[in-house]
Amino acid sequence: MMNNIIIERLIMTHLMKFEKISKERVARVNQNFIPPASGIWIRPNIIPGINFISGIAGAPCTREIGTLTIQVFDRVNQGTANIKEFCDELGKHLSYYQIYNLELLSASLVFVAVDNEFCQYNVILPYRYN
Questions:
Q1: pLDDT tens profile 90-111
Q2: How buried is residue 105: exposed, middle or buried, by Cβ count under 10 Å (0-12/13-18/19+)?
Q3: 3-state class of 35 per DSSP?
Q4: In 3D, which of 25, 110, 32, 29 has the Cα closest to residue 75?
Q5: Does this model's pTM top 0.70?
Q6: b (16+ CB within 10 A) / e for 59-69
Q7: Could you give the angle at which helices 81-94 and 4-15 cross, rounded to 10 degrees?
Q8: SS3 83
Q9: Integer Cα distance of 79 and 18 in angstroms
Q10: Shortest CA distance to 90 belongs to which of 113, 114, 115, 73?
Q11: Among 68, 88, 83, 74, which residue's Cα sits nearest to residue 35?
């Protein structure tokens, strides 16, 4: 079916309801963004996966699967308590969310790296759309 635009709109609408982030702190893929001088900011990535037929009745039913990866950044030398707490709350906000044919599954937190400017964690959630 290829419902990528619908999936993105549903996910982003729910993500922006998360009270601990303002849209000025959300970097979008393939758009210019200047990281804030301080505080946490995020970059959501909605990554479609390999779809499959989940049923055949009068017509085939396609299950579209993918992964929502939210890169979470904070400036270096801030410690990890704030970014981990933010990620945990973000994961709780998104996990097991269902609307229409979209279902977000369980969130995972993954440490990525610390470079000269930022500490990065990723909040990763698989999703499915029937």
A1: 999 999 999 999 999 999 999 9
A2: middle
A3: coil
A4: 25
A5: yes
A6: eeeeebbbebb
A7: 130
A8: helix
A9: 23
A10: 73
A11: 74
